[in-house]
Design brief:
Arc Repressor Mutant, subunit A; about 50% helix; single chain; 12 strands; five-stranded mixed sheet
Amino acid sequence: MGLSELKEYLPNLSIFAIDAIIWIKKRIFANEMKDYLYLNHANDYAQSVGAEVHHPMVSVVHFDELGPIAHTLNKMGDVYAFFVQDNFPANATYGMGGYDTSKGSLAAASPGQIIGKADDGTLEVYHGWTLHFEAEFMRGTAFEQRLHDYHYFSYNVNEALHTTEGEKQLLWQLMWMIRRFIQHRESTPQTDRILQDYILLVCDYALLFYQRQFQDAARRQSDLLSRFQWVLTDYYEHGLQRQHGLPNVKYCASELCLSPSYFGDVMRSVSGESPTQVIQRFLIDRAKSLLVSGLSATQVSDNLGFEYPQHFTRFFKKNTGIQPSKYIASLKRP
């Protein structure tokens, strides 16, 4: 809000008070801007920590060679990143989530995300590697087609991949190979195609290792499906459908302290169904019980949280093959 707007909405304020408000807002905005290291290009992070630059659109940093470095809270521009490290900053953030720093991990970041820790004046020695590459560099490659499979770019970092020792060493070896490749070869269309294949290999290995973690999580979280069912039941017992409508995956994942993407991947490992399919099955079971109890289709629609009765009718028919009225009629047959 500028000077003219403040005068319009706050006519009784003196010009000095208005100037003071504008000055304070500018200082707050400036401080917020200072908190971030903006990574608009692949080499921005490398340059900030004093690492060498070898390629205009791809950067590999080996933390062990740097010694103590300051913390940075990184705002990702049109850049993707992998961090494969033995240690992460304590109390680091990733969007609204946080790191589990108890063991070696892989964390992935995509454009628009915030990852890291604001500079607090302390220095820390990290062990591991980070790979940054610009989205434009992967344009037209298989990366774009496979990106919808790389759910880990949208996980919370408390859902980071906890690598086994063998997985970590393989990823570190890939990082070493990529850096060696860009150190000794100029960027040409042919070498860039090889470099793109290297990056795809890192992405695919990360996906493979996450699938291993999902299987481990499925064994450890065999009660996830029952807890999911409890969240849905609790949603209706507290009448939340009156305010928010139908339950959705984002809400359920939040109640289970998981990101929607990670929740979906673990659920498919646990039950073979997506969270959306489980919610739909829950709604159909609940709808049938309510219809059997004597409620009309309109009443059931309202009870479940559908916006309009016709939406419920279409949903019921799509999932059962018959309309609610015919389902009720089928129950009355001798």
